[in-house]
Amino acid sequence: MATPGLTARTLPTQHLRTAVQLNAHLSALRHANLAIFLRHASGKSIGDNRARDQPKKKKRARITFKEYNLKDAEQFSLCDAMRYIRAFEVGRPPTSPKYDLAVKFRTIKNGPVVRNRLRLPHAVNTSIRICVICPPDSKHAEAAKKAGATVVGEETVFDAVKEGRIEFDRCICHQESSGKMNKAGLGRILGPRGLMPSAKFGTIVKDTGAAVRGLIGGSEYRERNGVLRMAIGQLGFTPEEVQANIKTFMTEVKKDLNLLSDRINKEIDEVVLSSTNSPGFTLNGDFRGPHSPSSRDLSVL
């Protein structure tokens, strides 16, 4: 409906355009007032609708792993951490629970990871099952068996793996059998389990006997989500034995970090000692504290 007094008959010709614009403006105001009324009737404010209509801001993805401030965190000497851990393992056999060491890095996501293998001064897992892929009647098979390999052969190993019978914890391959192993297509099965022999990781070898002896009592470690974890000792180990294993492990980890590119910033942030059934205790780098028990007391279960 036109507004009274604002028609083409009552207005001069020069004001006709102004009247049309005014009518349009009044119509827009009526629609705006109606919208405001409906919004208030529904219990929503104008600000709510504006906030709803605006596009949501995406959270910026973190490029590094979450870090914690360790200044206020309680830290323990090795003997103190072992004393508390043993309290959680009371009544369990000394060779079943393991001391685990977790090394947390300050590092970016999706960067290169630390991965290697070493032989600790005091072996943690001596019941490891080793498979050696080599001609079954060769001198390499004989040397592997004498060194302690549990599974030796070529075609018998290939068939067992394809059938899902993976009865070993580590796998190495002699250089002469690497071609047959690749043709057998074991990578799809052993690869996801981390068991596929590879020249890059030193598991395709010339001397099978020496390789098996190196694996027995040896340990492998690999960084996952910015943390490096490895079993560092049995519950029955003395503090001196655990300390020797930790020193050897940390020395190798620092060497691995030095081998990374200069453009990759990866630093050790925290070292945590735990066990199979205990929480973690952050280590401060000391062997004993002023109130720590003697190492002799911790050497007896």
Defining key terms:
18% strand, four-stranded parallel beta sheet, 301 residues, alpha/beta
| Morphology call | flat
Biggest sheet layout? 6 strands, antiparallel
- C-alpha Rg (nearest Å): 35 Å
Estimate percent helicity: 25-40%
Number of helices, where a helix is a run of at least 4 consecutive DSSP H or I residues: 10
Order of neighbouring strands in the sheet with most strands: 2-7-8-1-9-10
Low-confidence stretches: none
Task: Write up what this structure looks like.
The protein has helices at 16-41, 46-53, 78-88, 139-147, 155-162, 178-183, 187-190, 208-215, 239-258, 295-298; strands spanning 98-106, 115-119, 130-133, 151-153, 170-174, 204-205, 218-224, 227-234, 267-275, 281-282. By secondary structure, the protein is of the alpha/beta class. The radius of gyration is 35 Å and the shape is flat.
Topology:
Layout: H1 16-41, H2 46-53, H3 78-88, E1 98-106, E2 115-119, E3 130-133, H4 139-147, E4 151-153, H5 155-162, E5 170-174, H6 178-183, H7 187-190, E6 204-205, H8 208-215, E7 218-224, E8 227-234, H9 239-258, E9 267-275, E10 281-282, H10 295-298
Parallel strand pairs: 3-4, 3-5, 5-6
Antiparallel strand pairs: 1-8, 1-9, 2-7, 7-8, 9-10
Helix pairs in contact: 4-8
Task: Give a brief description.
With 301 residues, this protein is an alpha/beta fold. It has 10 helices and 10 strands. Helices cover 35% and strands 18% of the residues.
